[in-house]
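pipeline: protein-struct stage 2 | run 1193 | Outer membrane protein beta-barrel domain-containing protein
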Amino acid sequence: MKKIIVLFAFITSMQLSNAQELETILLASDDASLLTENYLRPAMVGLMYSMNGGWATTAKVHKKFGFDVTIGFNGSLVPDKSQAFDFVPSDYTFLSLPNGESELQTVMSENDAETTVDISIPVGDGTFKVASFDMPGGITEDLPVNAVPAPTVQVGFGLPFKTDIKARFVPNLNFDDDIEANLIGIGLQHDLTQYFGPMDKLPLSISVLGAFTNMKVAYAINDENASDDVSVTNGEAEFKMNTWTIQALASLDLKIITFYGSVGYNNGKTTAKMKGDYTLTYDVEDSSGNQIGTVNETISNPINLDFEANGMRATLGTRLNLGPFKIFGDYTFQEYNTATLGIALSFR
């Protein structure tokens, strides 16, 4: 699938420079889904963690009708163990690695080298359908940072009862007529300090936050390589992501600087689908390995994957207050640790 990681084109407002012909994995037949899942998993998991970042830089809520506009950048760091995955032959029915490799790179690997994969599918009459394809390497070197990125633009607004409503919204966008993407997120932050009597006179604030994000990305898969063994008709990759987070926040809000932290829980689910019709071309060999012909097969909507990410999180951060302008940075400890940087314009 050319430039398969299209959601990065959306969230970084750029397209990756190197092409990823990932649709050739479909030649792996029943093994294609597992191979694709193993390859994409770090990007899908990292993105879900990134999208749950940056919702709050203080536990102190706005006064009624106060507001802020925040631009942030979240980057989830992919653990070294997730940059590659073991190739276990018993996990696959038809695949082998001809050059003795025992692992394959994931999409978030620093190694961009391709790996040849051989396919041999018994037909049932003593013959075999055979093919090979190049499994793509990682794309980390083409990203702005060595992390799964998720820029955010967010608006916060003060409601009565010391509650903030927060919104993230990107309308339907098109990139080069091949990519469509949109995002919507909503959050509520409620002040708890007000219930603790004279404590609300101190610079210490405590609140709770809940937030939900939905993102959809669709990417046209064009048949741009006529020399490979896969032809595409009406091809499309589709990603749908839902994430939510709930957090307890505390902050020490001084005039020039704010120290803040939170503990909470993340949850995310993503579906990745490859839609359309794909015609696969195999050589046919006899039991002695002699080629005796070719065969074409057409499959429809071949990939439907689910990814999940969930677990506890803890954040520590600092914000510099320059009047209405805020500069902040924090670090979240979770399965994929996440760094956040940003600026905000805030009026209380």
